[in-house]
Amino acid sequence: MPQKISHVSEADHDIVTAAVAAAEAHTSGEIVTVVAAKSNDYDDVALVWASVIAFIAMSAIALFPEFYRGLYDRLTGGWGHELTANQWLGTVIAVGVLKWIGMWLILLWRPLRMALTPRAIKAQRVRARAIDLFKVGTEAKTIGRTGILLYLSLKEHRADIVADEAIAAKVAPGVWGEAMAALIERVRAGKPGEGMAEAVRQMGIVLAEHFPKGDENPNELPDRLIEL
Question: Which sequence ranges are marked TM in the entry (predicted)?
């Protein structure tokens, strides 16, 4: 069985787990933490870029035909036969196809694909992934509907918080802004574990205010950092 690649260190796991336990000591809220390498492969973004480059290349030939006919003559040393309209059309299409394939191959390099993906699309994909994970592992998994998911996607440098029904009814999404800012700041500094721990600490303060610890409050969701 291949060994699972870890995206964060054991020390990161330990400090996040400890932060969750400390936060839940003062609230009936249940905090789930998840970290993933990325939220999406962005294959559709690569397809769009390849298509855009192919279209630009074909449009350039259509707009400046004399330049490209001259280039063809120089490449053939003036010995090439005059292309018919159909042959010229076929050449334009062939150039477009080659440009498309070339760009697609270049975008197999994931860092470039990620860099060329608009920030808004990254944010949408991270949010969608966070919601999917929340529905599977957190939503309606606690007696009082007080589960909350903190999700970090490392490649995108994005994070999201998704709260269960009872929490969402009392806490506006904007309240989590400081926790998110603290998390992203530390992620960019190469300290994802510290960032998640600080976000959990701030989330715990908010949860303790609205959902203080009761006499009977079982630990219904895992405290450990979940790595995908």
Answer: 46-68, 88-109
Q: Report pLDDT digits (tens) over 27-75.
A: 988 899 999 999 999 999 999 999 999 998 888 877 776 666 666 666 6
Number of CB atoms found within 10 A of residue 43's CB = 11
- Asked whether the beta carbons of 119 and 7 are under 8 A apart, the reply is no
Task: Determine the Cα–Cα distance for residues 12 and 7; give it in Å rounded to an integer.
Answer: 10
Report yes or no: 171 and 163 within 8 Å, Cβ to Cβ. Answer: yes
Instruction: Report yes or no: 184 and 159 within 8 Å, Cβ to Cβ.
Output: yes
Q: Is the separation of the CB atoms in 196 and 152 below 8 Å?
A: yes
3-class DSSP state for residue 224? coil
**Pair of tokens at residue 81:** 């036969």
Phi, psi of 29 (to 5 degrees): -70, 150
Q: Would you report the helix, strand and coil content of the chain in percent, each value rounded to 5?
A: 60, 10, 30
Location of structure tokens 């949408």: 124
